[in-house]
Amino acid sequence: MGTMDATPLAAPPAAPDEAALLPILIAPHPLLKARCRPVGAGDADKVRELVARMFATMYKAPGIGLAAPQVGALLRLAVVDVMPDDRKAPIVLINPEVVAESDEMVPHEEGCLSLPGQYAEVIRPAIVKVRYTDETGARREMQADGLLAACLQHEIEHLDGGLFVDHLSVLKRNIIMRRLAKDQRQKAR
Ligand code: NI
Which of 30, 143, 157, 159 is the most exposed place for a label (fewest CB within 10 A)? Predict the structure, then answer.
């Protein structure tokens, strides 16, 4: 873990829709397999800009979560908004880690902005406790269930080079990756 002091790492995403969009890397891009390094105090400016642009990119997609490696930044940083009650509820996760998880496992249909158009059921712990630093530099702990729990686990996994398809059988994963490659080839035409 990076050493964090109390200095703000990123301004709140005040006007995320105004930030410039970032291109999203599509699997199997090698950067999606990388292990990201912790955010440190020296990353404040970079994180501030990234957070605004990542939110803009995520909302535009639209998606409910986006991790820094998906936009080519190998930092332990992700943004999430599962829009509870159809209202914006942005969460900035700096150096997040799952510190506890339930024994109970539940399935969720997952997708990923790096695997556009591809979905599969993934079984994960139903409830997780996540420790992270927020955009003000404060250390926080959050317990989540339902969609948010799945989303948090999915995004944190990206920071270690993981994708939701890694949870599937080789057969299912290969089907999805082939379908994705075909879709991308057709799109490129
Ligand atoms: Ni994803």
Answer: 30
Q: How far is the CA of 6 from the centre of ligand 1 (A)?
A: 29
pLDDT at 18: 73
45 Cα–ligand 1 center, Å: 24
This prediction's pTM: 0.90
Q: What is the CATH number of the domain that holds 59?
A: 3.90.45.10
Catalytic positions = 155
- Cβ atoms within 10 Å of 129's Cβ, excluding its own: 16
Domain total of the chain: 1
**pLDDT, tens only, 118-144:** 999 999 999 999 999 999 999 999 999
Beta strands 139-144 and 128-133 are antiparallel
Asked whether the predicted pLDDT for residue 6 surpasses 80, the reply is no
Cα 63 to middle of ligand 1, angstroms: 9
Residue 17 pLDDT class (50, 70, 90 cuts)? low
The three-state secondary structure class of 94 is strand
Name the residue range of residue 164's domain: 2-188
Measured distance CA(108)–CA(159) in Å, rounded: 20
Query: At residue 173, what are phi and psi to the nearest 5 degrees?
Result: -65, -45
